[in-house]
Each structure stands twice: as C-alpha cells, then as structure tokens.
Amino acid sequence: MRHVVRSEWTKLRRPGMLAGGLSAMVLFAVLSAVLGVATAGSKDSGGPRIGDAINMAQLHSAHGLADALRQSTTLLGVVALCFCAAALAGEFSTGTIRNLLVREPRRLRLLAGMTLGVLTFVAAITLVALAAAGAVSVAIASGKGVDMSVWFGASGLAETGRAVGDLLLATLGFGLIGAVLGVLLRSPVLAIGAGVAYLLPVEAILSATVGGVDRFLPGQLLQVLAAGEGHSPSYAGAAVTVSLYAVLAVVAAGVVFARRDVTE
C-alpha cells in the first residue's frame, strides 16, 4: 500500500494542487483567527456554545490560543472536504483510475492507499495552517495587550495541544466525507457541490428547525469534536457516532468501488 500512498502524494505535491490546498487552508485558518482575536469583546456569552465568538476573558485565560484556533473549524472542514473530493473524484473524471488499477489491480488496497494518501496530505497542510494561525493570533493578541504568559505555561500548552488534535481530527472527518463522495459520485463538481450543500445550508436548517437532531448530523458532530469537551452533545458521544458513520461510509465506498465498472 505504501507505493499507492507515495503515488498519491506525488500527485498532490504538484504545484497547482499543493498551492491551491495549502493556500486555502492557511488563508481560512489565519482569517478565522484574525477575526476571532481582533473582534474579541468584553461580553461573556454565558456559557460554552459551539460557534460562539470569543471574548477578552477567554483570551486572557490559558485556553485563549486554543479558542482562537478553534474559530477555523468550519472553514478548514470545507476546504478539506473539497480537496479530498476533488482528488479522488478526479481520478475517475480524468480516467487515470484505469491506469492505477493496471499497476495495483487489488481494488480495495488501491482505494485504501489513495484515501490514506489524501488524508495524510490534508493533515500535513492543516498543521501548517494552524501554525500560521497561531503565529498571527499571538501577534494580534500582543497588540491588544493580552497577557499571553498563560498561553505558554503548562496548562496553556496542554489546551493548545488538545485544540490542535481536536481540529485535526474534525478536519480529517470532513476530508473523509469528501473522499467518500468523490468515490461514489466520480465527479469533482458533483462531489463538492453535494458535500458543501449538505454540510452548510441543509444541516443548518435541520439544526435550527428540528430539536435534538444535532446529535445525528455528521457535520454538527464534527464541530463538537473540534470544540472539545464541555459542549452538548458530549465529546465522547460525538466521537462514537462519528466513528460509526465513518465505518459505514468507508464500507459503502469500498463495496461500490470494488464492483463498479471503471471502463464507463
């Protein structure tokens, strides 16, 4: 499988793919951090709720940098979904999947390698984007007079590490959704359109109109994972449900890919 992963990385490292994916990740992560830190006010929102703007009290706490980074959850997820959908669906739309199957006729092994390759690539550019967002957050917070000594203490570094881990996990979840849609729909445009349309307007409408449905919506659950502990639904419950969704999605994509006629 390693040669499949290397092959996927070779494709993704091309200037167009690398520049597009990395620049989008960095841009949205930095923009979210800038808006979160620069517009932080003094009003407390009254409790931890997903999507809340951060306030000055949070910035002055040990989890200030972590809260600034978590502002980028949705945008990083959308970029990851689009990138993975385009990468895998592009193999079908361009016909290169047939050439790949000549080199690796074991279909499930090929699919696993391709998916692992694109997800590890997304993980790498996500970490770069979060590092850039963290640096910008520090610069802006310094200008606002925030005492950042607690950010770099033991508890502050632990909070930031957890935030990075949670964000990485959620971003990979969005990326897996894009990868599965790319395999099922085989068209970058259709896969990206379907994924973004569902995760943004459709889930937003369902969440606002149907009580308690949040605990079953994959996009909302991934945001819970990115937000960390202290939210509803619980982090553990969201992790279990997301894992079940991931297994079902991967199995469905594997069955379809194994049985599909790639000469179409």
Description of the molecule:
The protein is mostly helical and 264 residues long. It has one domain (2-259). 76% of the residues lie in helices and 0% in strands. It is built from 11 helices and no strands. The protein has helices at 2-12, 15-38, 56-59, 64-70, 73-93, 96-103, 107-143, 154-185, 188-209, 218-227, 235-259. The two termini are 26 Å apart.
Tell me the distance between the termini.
Answer: 26 Å
pLDDT averaged residue by residue: 89
Rg (CA only): 19 Å
How many domains, as an integer? 1
Total helical elements: 11
Overall 3D form: globular
The biggest sheet, with number of strands, parallel, antiparallel or mixed sense and barrel status, is: none
Count of DSSP strands? 0
Supply the helix-strand structural class. mainly alpha
Helix content: over 70%
Which sequence of SSEs, written as H and E, runs from N to C?
HHHHHHHHHHH
Unreliable sequence segments: none
Beta-strand content bin: under 5%
Write the layout of secondary structure elements.
Blueprint: H1 2-12, H2 15-38, H3 56-59, H4 64-70, H5 73-93, H6 96-103, H7 107-143, H8 154-185, H9 188-209, H10 218-227, H11 235-259
Helix pairs in contact: 1-7, 2-5, 2-7, 4-8, 5-7, 5-8, 5-9, 7-8, 8-9, 8-10, 8-11, 10-11
